[in-house]
Each structure stands twice: as C-alpha cells, then as structure tokens.
Amino acid sequence: MENPFKNQVLKLRRTAKLTQILVKYGFQDLLGSPSKRPSTEGISLPPTDPTVYERIRLAIEELGPTFVKFGQTLSSREDLLPALLIVELKKLQDRVPPQEIDIVPYIEEQLGINASESFREIETEPIASASIAQVYKAVLADGTPVILKIKRPNIRTTINSDLLILRDIVQFLSDYSLTIRQINLKYILATFQKTLVEELSFVHEAQNIVQFEQNFRGVDKIHCIHTYEELCNDDVLCVSWIDGVKITDKDGLLTYGLNFEHIVDSGLELFLTQVLEHGFFHADPHPGNILVTPDGKLSFLDFGAMGRMLLSDQVILEDFIIAFINKDADSLLYIIKKMAVYIQIENEKNIKREILELFDMASTNTLENIDIKAFFSKFSNILYQNNIIMPEHIYLLVRGVVLMEGIGRELMPGLNIVEKIEPYIEQIIRKRLSFENLKKESQRKLMDSYQLLSQAPYTLKNIAQRLEQGDLTVKVDNTDLQHLQRQYRKNQSTNRSLALGCLFFVSGCLVISVEQYRILGIPILSWIFFLIGISFLILAKLRSLRID
C-alpha cells in the first residue's frame, strides 16, 4: 500500500524543481504575484532568447520523462493547441543519457537467478536509452540472442510524484480557464495517466506481446517478437532479438534487395488488420518501432502502449467509414454522436456544413494529392469547434494512420494512400453484405425488438407516473426528428425486404422434400426460393446502407 505522506514529500520535492525550471525559462507569471515569485539568483538562464513555444519545449525536456511524454501526447492534438506550439512539441524526444546500472547483479536481484546459468553473455552498455527503460543486448545460455529491457531504478516513484503535480496543474487551469474546461484537459490527462501506468508495467507489455503474436499467428508478412516468460517481471523484459533495419532505411532495404512498394503495402495491410480485424493495434508505429528483416517481413517493436477497441467500437468505426464513403452527412453526424465521450453541439447546421466541406476537400483533390495529415487536422478542428471529445482509441488510430502514411510517403513520394486503403473498405462492405453477417444482424434486430417490447409496459408506466407528478419535460429537435423520420422510412423498407427474404427461405425449406429434379441433392424449386430469398436479404442490406 502506498504511503500518502511519502507521496506528498516527493511531490513537494518535485514541485520545488518545477518552480526552479519555470523561473529558469521565464515563466515566473505562473507562480503568482511578483512579490511572491522566487528569486532568480543563482539560476543559469538560457544563453539565447527563444520564442515562448521554444521555451515551453525546453522546460518540458528539463522537467523529465512524465512531462516529455505528456507533451508528446499533446503534440498529436492539432485540434487543441496552436500550430507553432505543436511544431515545438513534436521535437520532444524520449531520449535521455543512459543511467549507470551494474546490469548483471541487477538482473540477478530482480529475477532471483544466477545470471551465468541463464545467459552466456550480457552486454554492459545499453544499445538504447529512453526515459522509462534502457535496452541491452544479451545471449541466452543456448546461444539465442535476446533483448533485455530494464526499467530505470526509482522511475515509478518519479512518475507518480509528477502525475500528482500534473493533476494539480490541470485542476488549477480548469478552475480559471474556460478554454481549458472546453477542451476537457482533465480527460486527456486521465487517459494519458492510464497509458503511462500501463507502459510502466513490463508484465502488461509482455501480455500485449503475447496477444499480438497470437493475433498474427500464421501470417507470413510479419515477424512477431516473443517473450521469455521465465526471464520477465515488472522491471525486466526479455524478448527475442530481431535482425533487421528501420522501415525508412532506404539503403538498408536496397541492401536486402527489397521493393519499397511491397514494404509499404505490407505495412498498411498489417496496421489496418490490427485495427479492422483485431481491434488491438500498435499505438505508436513510428519508423523506429518497425523493423524490416532481410526476407522482407515487418516486425513491430515496443508494446508498452496499445490501442484497444471493443467489437461495438469496431462496428461503429465501420459505420463511420461507410457513411463517409457515401458522403452521408446526417448519418456521419449521428455516428459521431454515438462515438463521442462528450458532446455539446450548439448548432447542428454548422457542423453539417463543415462535414460537407470535408467531403469537398476529399472530392476536389486528386487521390495522390490528398494531405492525410491536413485532412485529419480539419476533422479534429470540426470536433473542437463543436465541443466534441472522442474516445482515446480514435486519437491513437488517427495518429497511427498519419504515421503509417508518413512512412509510406518517405519510401514512395507519389504514394496514393486512398487507393491503397480502398481494398480494405471494399472488404468491410463485403463483410457487411455476407449471408452470415445478414443472419446475425437479423437475429440482433429481432432480439432488440423483443427487449424493446418487453420493456415497453414499464417504460409507459414510468412516463405516466412522471406525467402525473408534472416533472416530464419534452424537448423536440427538428433536425433529429427529420433524421428519425428518414430512418423510420428506411427501416420500413429494409424490414419488408428482410421479411420477404425470410419467407422465401422458409418456402425453400418446405418444398425440399418434393420429388423433382435435384441439384447437389436439393430440389430445383428450393434453389429458386433460396436465391430469391438471398436477393431480398442483399436488397435489405443495401437499403440500410443507402444515402438518404
């Protein structure tokens, strides 16, 4: 159990350091009135006079890992912060000088092993160093090369105290700034804290690696790393070594004799598979986290933070893609409302107009000239202007798509990203129109209807009671009513087609015993009924997807 007193002592120490750094970079105004500001005596100020945004970035870098990572999180939120500040935040690097660690005794203490029995060799100098962990190369006793990821000593204590300070800062800003309340910085910090705590746990990262490897079992285009469970705990992670080059290393790829377009296609396919099929995707697919092996397979690294979607989230995302392809502003807005964790739209006509402008942006540019980053930036701005906050996995997904597109354009400057994604959109449509999916959707709608009917008496009773008590308020939104009317007409048409489809299927089953010419053991009349039934089911699905 954590000691609250100890946490407060650590928080006070970190607050003193924070104060010193804010003064050093000229942010005394944040510390109160001039008479209460700390003295700058003895504090070395930067030799130049950088802009305010540069000073913010320099201060964040000096404040350490928690603030650097929070700055990196905000760097992908063009919808919240000024463009020049975003430019500076994108310069934040999660690289710090390596810490002196007597690695062999440390490994033995952490894992409770005799290192010489498990390892043939452990290199004492790290091959990479970041804010949370350092990475070492080692060789197992059987000669297998591995990677050892070692958590920095006391890093959890530092991050916990930093999070306490960040919560206080965000609370203070939210109390005194309407803008901060509108962008819901508290929610952003809460999701960041959850992600950072997960990243601190190597047990959690090991579980992510195992799940990722299981998801891609049997897929030839990817080389998944795997863990050595007996050599892992919450502070030490032992994973397989991957021979390869960074995905954007053109010279390295040419040395392997690999085709750039093949690598781009594989990268997009693997990332979209994670999103659309697994609902479990790499949250930071930057070039340093993707290697290419000599035989052209891709290998993802660093599984501390992963994006997760429930099956319902994946269905809604598919609905979003279909509505966008159909340029259906009404349906798109309806889906955005379903996806959002917070929404307070003041003028629906304005947001629909902005969505139509987004459609125009996609239509008026040739596919190869579409700037995906600018496109998503405009979409993010629409959300911000209309007080809409999406779930964290949406922002992670957008960031992932932008990073993957950036990798693609670096290898293929003329990359047509939309053309590359089109087959996956077609795959979504085919899946939605498949007989199995139509069957499941029909069953789900029947169950929803049953639940609605079974709850109707209680709902009506509740409404009657509220009417008697005089506390029933009815609010009518004409825009929503029009949408509901269109949806009602669409549902009626869809339900008729579903009913006819089911009727012909039943008819085909009823005549299956009739003596007549058969194909594959089934009477030809049954085949005719089945085909007519399938036609009506497909028609029902098409009507449910059509533009109003």
From TrEMBL:
The keyword Protease does not apply. Pfam families: ABC1 (PF03109). It comes from Sphingobacterium micropteri. Keywords: Kinase, Membrane, Transferase, Transmembrane, Transmembrane helix. InterPro entries: ABC1_dom, Kinase-like_dom_sf, Prot_kinase_dom, UbiB_kinase. This is AarF/ABC1/UbiB kinase family protein. The chain crosses the membrane at residues 497-514, 520-540. Belongs to the protein kinase superfamily. ADCK protein kinase family. The keyword Transmembrane applies. GO terms for molecular function: kinase activity. Residues 121-453 form the Protein kinase domain.
